[in-house]
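Reopening closed ticket. The problem is back. First fold of the pair:
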Amino acid sequence: MISEQKLNLGGEWFDGVSGINSQSRYLTREEILKGIEDRKMKRLMEANLEEIESIEQDERGYDFKTEINGNNVVD
């Protein structure tokens, strides 16, 4: 397999960015795979952060409810 294989978009090998210097638009297979992996990792990190935020909001809500109900007495 050729290591310089590019992503084929409509019969032309390019990354979708227009420019004067066409050589700057070409991507290697490895660059494309790295970009896909980077986007996947970013989505996973965002999902984890959203889950953590949701858990923290639930915990704050529970703490507030117990404080309002008098179960958490502060001296």
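Second fold of the pair, where the issue appears:
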Amino acid sequence: MDNEQRERAAKRILEDPVFQEAWDALRQEFLDSWENSQTQDTEARENLWLGLKILSRLKTHFESILTTGEFKRKNRNPF
């Protein structure tokens, strides 16, 4: 898969309503679980934090593919 195909695929994923719904639902589930966790349940709270970080990194990865592609297109040498 070349860079332009990767960029188009990332854009489709990020703009897909099902992906957006799933991302929002998972993020909210992690936050709700964290908020309702017991203070002394350190392991569960750390796992929820890790889940939030992984979820965020996934979305950031797709956004990075788009940003890199846009940057490269804007800075192409026309000559």
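Update: turned out to be a display glitch only; the data is intact. The mean pLDDT is 90. The two ends are 26 Å apart (CA to CA). Please close again.
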